[in-house]
Amino acid sequence: MTFITVEHLLAHTSFFLLFFVTFIYWGKFLYINIKPITILGEISMKIACFFITIFLLIRWSSSGHFPLSNLYESSMFLSWSFTFIHLILENKSKNTWLGIITAPSAMLTHGFATLSLPKEMQESVFLVPALQSHWLMMHVTMMMLSYATLLCGSLLAITILVITLTKQKNFPIFTSYFNLPFNSFIFQNLLQPMENEILSYKTEKVFSFINFRKWQLIKELDNWSYRVISLGFPLLTIGILSGAVWANEAWGSYWNWDPKETWALITWLIFAIYLHTRMIKGWQGKKPAIIASLGFFIVWICYLGVNLLGKGLHSYGWLM
């Protein structure tokens, strides 16, 4: 009973922190961008990651197995993966805007597990015989980490498409048009430099400056999308291979064309095509971003959509 109380406390506290972090990052982006608020967001994300880590460890200790046996536990682990990836990327890139993508992803996944799923699905249960294997941690952990990483990379690619499809004539120039304060992220990083340019250049030069700023942002997003997906792809590969070995032990065959296996293969092929176009064809920007954006939806079908069907050899894990 004590474990359950602590779990609920950690789960709801970490969700509140993620909601607060999301509010900070989006508020900083749209309204105010000052250093103390940025630091507060970073600290809150670290605390949320820590609380979810403690939650998973307590769950592991109380259940006697790694907490990836149902939809609730896997969603909490996915939320933890988003926070962990956020901390790594923010430390490596030194950019605070990544939280605009990772914080809502962690919050929504956490909220789905904590607020949407019924209490019965949130309870820890004994593993079915098929899951009582040392491959559980290896296979499912790799798959969930790959899902989180690929989703982050795909969201960066979707952001590229949104910016790319923004027409220049609809791009606001003056802060009065935006009606934003002078200390907002948008003003400090886009509009203020543009207004400075207006003082000494003609309008044509300003539009050239706008295009240059957009090109810089797209270039950075494209670079990080490629790097993140390049990390997630080998994780997905390891997850599929370890799952094949586990399937051979449990069912006597490495591959059975189960719906879960089939969609995992489709996911692998989509991101293999993405990496091929980047590494071999040398594509950049919009074209590979379209492929990665497609991968975003494929990942969700593989993770959530197939499970909710409750069919196939993974039907015991339709709540997984």
UniProtKB/TrEMBL annotation:
Recorded topology in the membrane: Multi-pass membrane protein
Keywords on record: Chloroplast, Cytochrome c-type biogenesis, Membrane, Plastid, Thylakoid, Transmembrane, Transmembrane helix
Q: What GO MF annotations does this protein's record show?
A: heme binding
Q: What's in the GO CC field?
A: chloroplast thylakoid membrane; plasma membrane
Q: Which InterPro entries match?
A: Cyt_c_assembly, Cyt_c_biogenesis_CcsA, Cyt_c_biogenesis_CcsA/CcmC
Q: Domain Cytochrome c assembly protein: where?
A: 68-314
| A Pfam family | Cytochrom_C_asm
Please list every transmembrane segment annotated in the UniProt record, as residue ranges. Answer: 12-31, 43-60, 72-89, 96-115, 135-163, 224-247, 262-277, 289-310
Chloroplast found in the keyword field: yes
Where found in the cell? Membrane; Plastid, Chloroplast thylakoid membrane
GO biological-process terms attached to the record: cytochrome complex assembly
Where does the protein principally reside? membrane
Q: Which family does it belong to?
A: Belongs to the CcmF/CycK/Ccl1/NrfE/CcsA family.
Say what the protein does: Required during biogenesis of c-type cytochromes (cytochrome c6 and cytochrome f) at the step of heme attachment.
Quaternary state and partners of this protein?
Answer: May interact with Ccs1.
Matching entries from NCBIfam families are given as: cytochr_II_ccsB
Q: What is this protein called?
A: Cytochrome c biogenesis protein CcsA
